Sequence to fold (163 residues):
Amino acid sequence: GLILIGGNQVMLGYLNDPAKTADAIVRLDGLRWYRTGDKGRIDKDGFLTIVDRYSRFAKIGGEMISLTSVEEAVRSVLDSPELQCVAVAIPDTKKGASIVLLINSSEIEGDETEDLTKRLIAQGLSPLMTPARIELVDEIPSLASGKTDFLSARKFALQVTAQ
Fold:
């Protein structure tokens, strides 16, 4: 579920931005909590594991689709656990959103992407989770920290689909 952080260290809110504050801070049972945007689970020993970000979900045909799960399925089908790829959601007038998958072109042959959708469905992936479009790119956008730059990846996906 959604990870909430509470305590004295939680900010009072965003300066001069009550709308943003209302999105980030929630009151439950008289206590203030910060909505992290992270999805987590607590194991039997009480350890919290962050499993995803809610911003990494797409609402397609009324269903919430984990973009991280799409990436994991692609790596599994291609038997390439270290494959550099990123799934992003872009607006779709019929389904609400569609998935565009960017794959590092140096790690895959072009013909491997041709039947990827069929292979994903054959492995039991929901058709809603299959990429509507697959693009080979020279490199996956990344931040200075080395983490994937999801914003730049989405901007690129929007550009290529507009063409």
In short: The longest strand covers residues 31-42.
